[in-house]
Amino acid sequence: MAVHDFTSERLYVEADLAADAAVVLTADQAHYLLNVLRMAAGGEILVFNGRHGEWRARLEDIKKRSASLRILMQTRPQTDGPAIHYLFAPLKHARLDYMVQKAVELGVARLSPAMTRRTVPGRVNIERMRLNAIEAAEQCGVLRIPQVDDVAALTRTIEDWAPGTPLIFCDEEAPVRNPIAALGALTPGPVAVLIGPEGGFDAEERRLLLSKPFVTALSLGPRIMRADTAAVAALTLVNATLGDWR
What we know:
single chain, 7-stranded parallel β-sheet
């Protein structure tokens, strides 16, 4: 496995990547490289697009508000992380930003905001979520950008669920108190994790979840966690038992 270069700046681009390809930067990207990073013509940066791995690129064709990159050589081939689908009740902006960033760092493949009866924020900025996911991937050497879904009602999501994918929901009343033991009953592979709102799931939502054969309740121990902390704890446990930390 190629070693991540922690000393070079990284930039996410939409364009296809191949040796000697030219990538025209957006105005925001050109501003960032030229005015924030103070890069000059000939400067090099790592780029990735979530499909073709990571490449070293050279800055060229600089104009007043635009520039392009010349793709030089691949530094890492494309790799995918664990097949973890993360569903969560949306939080307020700052804490939602944190949750998305940590989920990306922990390798989730898909992010799905799920509205529950006790969800407080009434609107979720999906584009902001996607930009946060990209920024986290740029900073942490992640090569995959997770899919970001539109907001959906939790009840509809559960009713439409593909039963072949286990769904783990964090529940302080889970019958198995040891989370490792609970997860040990599942087969490694694609899995989904659900974190509820600060007030927890209401009684009807819990009944719906527990009625489904594909659902596993997961205890996160004797202490009550905030939703963003619970996300890190749950995704860590799942990576260690079912994901790519094994």
